[in-house]
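Page 42, continued from yesterday. The earlier attempt failed because a stray header line got pasted into the input along with the sequence. Redoing it now with the clean sequence only.
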Amino acid sequence: MPFRKPRLVLVAAVLALAGCDSVGSPFPSLSGPSSSTYAGNQPPELGSTYFEPSGVTPGAPTGTFVGQKIVGFRQELGALQTAIRNQNEQLQNIRNKTIQDSQAYHENVAGMNARLQVGTTPGNPVLMNRWEQAQAQLNTINDDIILMNQLSAQITTNSAMANYLLDSVRAAFSLSGAVDEDHRQLRVLEDETQQTVVLIERLLKELSQDVARQQQYVSNEKQNLSALALAIKNGQLYGTSFANRPILGNPNAQGFAASGLQGPGGFAAGGQPLVMVRFDRGSVDYETALYEAVNNALSRYPNASFQVVAVGPALNAVGQATPNTAQARLYAERVVRSLQGMGVDPNRIGLSATTSPSAQYPEVHVLLR
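This time it went through. Structure tokens are written below.
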């Protein structure tokens, strides 16, 4: 759609990302993303194993000292297996609760994104209230992780007790005064204790995997909620947070230099910006196009970093900066906050300022580096 007075320009001379700086050239849609739709991370799959101890085989008393020790071992193993059964039930309950909490959260987020997809007013109070609800729902999922960690600590204690009991049973074979029946019962008890140790280890491993996946999921969703808040503020759907994209090693280790696209100071060749925003009025809607341009750039160059440059008019006749020059710096800081809100790592954003005789209004240029 052509504009009578272009305020935002997307340059594609370097990466063929989108648009050019002439009036009437194609621009990304400012009513919604042309290619980015929300595809939020689905809740990670939780473990499904039901951990049930095999039980303790009874044995007849032999009347020996070793036989008395066996009775005590058997009681300890029975108590330990009872604790494991209870903890297994707690685990299944926490898993069910986590699944329900995650489903409620995703239904809420999906509803907000569906509303943004068809278009809505900036700062829609209904969506803002639902966003706050989603944040509370995500906190509830985080509370579920805390419950998992607490349960893991209890099971770890039982693991230490089970290993100690196994060592004690094995040591009993060397005690004097035992009869053949004592050793037969000890062998059975050793096998059942060993099975319990293995069961606890499997339980701890699966629970640890659940915790790790849930923690990563919550971390990703916090970033996505931040990007969603930005979308609600502007009434336009963007996509998931850039923070959830993988970084392939050092951001400056590959990419533009290898392709001959890096110019002096790490800027794109020819100094052409990825995005140029001209602030010739109080409110300029630039965030949708900014998201699209950065999204396309990161799709091609996952290691890309960005330089945000405040461009003000040239100095006045006495060599002093004009008010527009200082205003350009404030606008540049606003663009930096927008990038951070979209999930771009602050360490991958640089900020600088310059002047240009061709700039009539404050401008902000976003360049690849």
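Notes: The beta strands are 8-10, 275-278, 306-313, 349-356, 363-368.
Reminder to self: strip header lines before submitting.
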